[in-house]
Amino acid sequence: MQGFFLTVSPEATLKVATQSSTHNKTFSLNLSAPFISQFYKEPLMKVMSYVDILFGNETTEDIKEIARKAQALPKMNPKRQRIVVFTQGKDDTIMATENEIRAFPVLISDQSEIVDTNGAGDAFVGGFLSQLVYDRPLTECIRAGHYAASVIIKRSGCTFPEKPDFH
Length: 167
Prior knowledge:
ATP binding; about 170 residues; EC 2.7.1.20; five-stranded mixed sheet; alpha/beta; 5 strands; Adenokinase
């Protein structure tokens, strides 16, 4: 679910989150933009106890500590441990699980290849989830997310080539 829903219907977001938890389904939340956690903190914190996978995009010195704290927040469904994934543009993607915090380098090292960054975060989430639904390891989910984002930022607009080459 996109964090933007917290701005217009926090009740609906909470209902989807509680239903997911009740039926042991994965509930993921993409913070979407930094203002969500700044100006919608109360509804965000109400839904956080149901979040299984939290996505965000932030660049700050203490990002690993923020990821660790977000991962450790109380959780309603103990059958699913929370995973926190923070992308940071050209900097490493950070993933926090119950057992570790890892950094993953992004695929694009040549900044001149970047055409348009619109949709890169959503593409990352889509790539990540595309592998999660097949129960692939989290490292493979991150790799797919990086691939999808790297394709998007090399093109104008949020578009993919006709035939992707992710393997």
